[in-house]
Amino acid sequence: MPDHAARSLAGSQNAFEEACRLMPGGVSSPVRAFKAVGGTPLFIKEGLGCIIKDVDGNSYIDYVASYGPLIVGHAHERVVASLAKAIGHGTSFGAPTELETQLAGEIIAAMPSIEMVRFVNSGTEAVMSAIRLARAATGRDKIVKCIGCYHGHADSLLVQAGSGALTLGVPSSPGVPKSITENTLLAPYNNLDAADKLFSQHGKEMACFVVEPVAGNMGVVPPAAGYLQGLRELCTRHGALLLFDEVMTGFRVALGGAQQIFNVKPDLTCLGKVIGGGLPVGAYGGRRDLMQQISPSGPVYQAGTLSGNPLAMSAGLATLEILKEPGAYQALEQRGAALEAGLKEAAQSAGVPLVVNRVGSMLTPFFVKTGDRVTNFDQAAACDTAAYAKFFHAMLDQGVFLAPSQFEAMFIGLAHGEQQIAQTIAAAKKAMKGIGASRSKKK
Ligand SMILES: *Cc1c(COP(=O)(O)O)cnc(C)c1O
Questions:
Q1: Which of 76, 242, 309, 422 is a plausible cystine mate for 72, CB 3.0–4.6 Å?
Q2: pLDDT tens, residue by residue, 240-271
Q3: Which CATH number is 159's domain given?
Q4: Does one domain contain both 28 and 136?
Q5: Helix (H, G, I), strand (E, B) or coil at 94
Q6: Measuring from each residue's beta carbon to the nearest atom of ligand 1, which residues come in under 6 Å?
Q7: Are 86 and 204 part of one and the same domain?
Q8: Domain span at residue 135?
């Protein structure tokens, strides 16, 4: 294992100081600033496969993977070739290209609930637009979202949101008018009784229930048995639409997303991350009768100057092609399972209480204070974030880059080989020992 004891961060420190003068918090997205774990964010120079290198020349095994999109690894030769081919022919036209139809075809083939799809530029845009459609199609204003789920930063969804909003302890953001959020109802994740109650009170006003079918933005929390089926029934019974936000899980947990694994058919699905192969993309799709209400076939307006961008489509197409090869998801599952087992064992032998939640290649090690399960936001929020911060830094010192927050997922990709997984587990053993030792001193 590389010796990171003498790791210099001078380059990142300088770059961060300079960035902080010019950009709020020095970053383009808040979690990147390391606020929850302390220290200087790494400024990244390059990535190849599962390894990233910072501006000081330190290498790390990368489990952030740009928060999910890089499932085939950084600078995969086939993605690079596909991009190189596209870029030589122009980067944007404001006119349709066949690449969009191709990627639409791939998505529709992989996800039977999607009959038509519209491309946008981010997951945020996808969910925002899908909600507009749900409201238009039902003629209702209210939506339900789950506490701790994150659906991007659109006004109506920035209430008790996960990811960065949760990491930074923002219950909902200033600048979001009450008149908007009063139409957003909140439900605890994995609680069908609570959803049932909300529907019996507000069912007639409810446009849609939006949910991450596997929560990933309060850390990974899989759906309880029957939860998604129950939501499906409630929505159908009350004439509301079921909207799966698969921006993280789509093409990540299976080719057909979480809806394939749990066998539940939503009315609308949002995608992003993996389908752009590391370039900015989002998409929303669903039943034909719904999607035909989108402009210009229908009256629901939604547009985008760079939507369906040829570079983004090319990177997405190359990524999906690699994922469609036989054995891809089995490999991801195997490596995920190996990492899960290794993390559990490392924690156990150091006497550190740890819950590892995993679905395929996304997982979160939760440093629980009490209890042995994390099934909702309250349990996730009660975790020992100081212990996570210690773990994060101990791993970083050993050349393993995790998300700088307890409330994010670790992403395993096809580029993570057995050797890197073993290296990660060895690092975790050391890190857990340190945490176990400082715990027993406190007692
Ligand atoms: C990342 C994410 C989003 C937001 O996507 P952006 O591209 O960051 O706007 C929305 N929903 C879920 C579930 C996500 O994981």
A1: 76
A2: 999 999 999 999 999 999 999 999 999 999 99
A3: 3.40.640.10
A4: no
A5: coil
A6: 122-124, 127, 150-152, 212, 216-217, 245, 247-248, 272, 282
A7: yes
A8: 77-323
